[in-house]
Write a structure and sequence with these properties.
By secondary structure, this protein is an alpha/beta fold. The protein has helices at 61-69, 83-86, 102-118, 133-140, 172-178, 200-208, 215-221, 223-234, 266-274, 298-320, and strands at 41-46, 89-94, 122-127, 146-151, 182-192, 211-214, 238-244, 280-287. Strands 2-1-3-8-7-4-5-6 form an 8-stranded parallel sheet, with helices on both faces.
């Protein structure tokens, strides 16, 4: 059972439009707070999009996600899971990036997450563009490579951009494999689609043993079958979950930098996360929410709804342990 201190503020006690917005109305704890060691899952913002190659904006994602998350309630309406009863959850604030220096920002992110992991906390990240996942993985995978379930319309496995730029939101998982952070044979990428520059990323995936499930296969086989295979690929070993909001069709999630048509709807977006039940999740992220392209906030609300589903899976995992 979680401590009452870590319970979110109820909308029956304080209207959802009132108060200082934290992730899911949870308590905010700084990294020097004495209660940090009591936290099971820490929700962290990474307001940084220096890896973006076209339409910027995800640096504003964590702030809009926080605001939207005040609509999240205590119980999952579909599964009945009450994650805040099983887990001590807290908003651990934002990593302070250096918007003028990619390498310094990545070092800052990794250092922040090292402190979080040193307290035994599972990080749930709100990005930020997808390059955010690389410095997070440098912390999460300090002791050895992890597996990954990756929901996206892009592989993010490219070698480089613009004649040798190695760190963009299209390269994080190429770097993560090269750095030994990911076990490629325990990586599955789901939802890949859209026009392409070439086959370089796909060729790399095949050579390394990464399983790519394109959107055509996803719809032909169905969610249950695809996610059964995904669970088999990562097994019961430590697994990271990375969820790019552009996995979802832009009809439902227009607020992202690189939308691709022909994706899942909002219900399917939640359903795939529910099918992660039973995995040994050691960290997860929701990235590429870009408020300038959806100022009404529907994309952000869908994003935090996915994050809530991830919390529910983690909560079920905690109960089993």
């Amino acid at each position: 059972m979680s401590s009452d201190f870590f319970k979110p503020v109820s909308g029956m006690e304080l209207p959802r439009f009132a108060g200082v917005p934290t992730f899911m109305r949870l308590p905010y704890l700084a990294l020097d707070d004495a209660r940090l060691s009591d936290v099971d899952v820490g929700i962290i913002g990474v307001p940084w999009d220096s890896g973006t190659t076209n339409r910027p904006g995800p640096r504003h994602g964590p702030r809009q996600l926080r605001d939207s998350s005040t609509m999240i309630r205590a119980q999952n309406g579909a599964t009945g899971v009450r994650p805040f009863e099983a887990l001590n959850c807290a908003d651990l604030g934002d990593v302070g990036p250096n918007p003028a220096d990619i390498q310094d920002s990545m070092n800052r992110i990794t250092a922040f997450y090292n402190q979080v992991l040193d307290h035994g906390i599972i990080p749930l990240t709100a990005g930020g563009d997808h390059l955010t996942s690389l410095p997070v993985l440098r912390s999460v995978a300090r002791k050895g490579p992890v597996g990954m379930v990756h929901f996206d319309s892009h592989t993010d496995l490219f070698h480089s951009y613009f004649g040798g730029t190695m760190y963009t939101h299209g390269t994080p998982f190429r770097r993560a494999v090269e750095e030994g952070l990911l076990d490629p044979k325990r990586v599955v990428q789901i939802g890949i689609r859209g026009t392409a520059y070439d086959n370089e990323d796909i060729d790399f995936a095949r050579a390394e043993g990464i399983r790519i499930i394109r959107i055509e296969e996803f719809f032909e086989r169905g969610i249950t079958d695809v996610m059964t295979e995904a669970r088999e690929i990562v097994g019961n070993h430590e697994t990271y979950v990375s969820y790019d909001i552009d996995f979802i069709d832009p009809t439902y999630a227009p607020g992202t930098g690189t939308p691709e048509v022909g994706g899942p709807n909002s219900f399917q977006a939640l359903q795939v996360v529910r099918e992660l039940a039973g995995l040994n999740i050691v960290g997860a992220d929701m990235v590429e929410v870009s408020p300038p392209f959806d100022q009404a906030g529907g994309t952000a609300f869908l994003g935090v709804s996915v994050m809530f589903e991830l919390l529910c899976v983690m909560a079920a995992q905690k109960v089993v342990q």
